[in-house]
Amino acid sequence: MSVINIGEASEKTGVSAKMIRHYEDIGLLPKSKRTESGYRFYKEDDLHNLIFIKRARALGFSTAQIKKLMGLWLNKSRKSADVKKITQDHIEELEVKLKEMQQMIKALKEMSGCCHGDQKAECPILENLSKT
Predict the structure, then answer these.
(1) DSSP string over the chain
(2) What is the Cα–Cα distance from 30 to 70, expressed in whole angstroms?
(3) Residues in CB range of 40: below 8 A, 6 or more apart
(4) Facing residues of 34 across strands?
(5) All residues at 6 or more sequence positions from 44 whose CB lies less than 8 Å from its CB, including other chains
(6) How many CB atoms lie within 10 A of CB 57?
(7) I need a surface site. Which of 19, 50, 53, 76 has the fewest CB within 10 A?
(8) Distance separating alpha carbons of residues 124 and 128, to the nearest angstrom
(9) Would the pTM of this model clear 0.85, i.e. be above it?
(10) Rounded to whole angstroms, how far apart are CA atoms 86 and 71?
């Protein structure tokens, strides 16, 4: 099995070297092996883990959720029900966030609609933001 350096791992996975080091620091990715001169090196399994992490991050999973998912992914005796539970919980969190964002958009549109956007100093948007 060939080994590659952090730059090559970054290129092959699309995860920056900085993020690879970060994932190692926070425990998402096992600490890399080092050469005698101290350079990190990675194997094929490490690349699969990085791609897994990247995909999970793109889907909005938190670091804690990704740790759990990685643990389940690496555990061949896992129960798919455990994976589904994490995913369903994440969906519910996203739906709450979506609803909150839709409410923010509605409020911002209402405020924006009250503003004339002219050369006058008075601004209903700023007045609204300053209300308690």
Answers:
(1) ---B-HHHHHHHHT--HHHHHHHHHTTSSPPPEE-TTS-EEB-HHHHHHHHHHHHHHHTT--HHHHHHHHHHHH-TT--HHHHHHHHHHHHHHHHHHHHHHHHHHHHHHHHHHH---SS-S--HHHHHHT--
(2) 11
(3) 5, 6, 32, 33, 34
(4) 40
(5) 1, 2
(6) 16
(7) 76
(8) 6
(9) no
(10) 12
Kindly list the averaged pLDDT for each block of 10 residues, start to end, along the chain of length 132: 90 97 94 87 93 97 96 94 98 98 96 92 92 82
Residue 81: both structure tokens together: 């029900």
Residue owning tokens 């004339």: 116
What span, in angstroms and rounded, lies between the C-alpha atoms of 46 and 30?
Answer: 8
Tell me if 49 sits within 8 A of 32, measured CB to CB: no
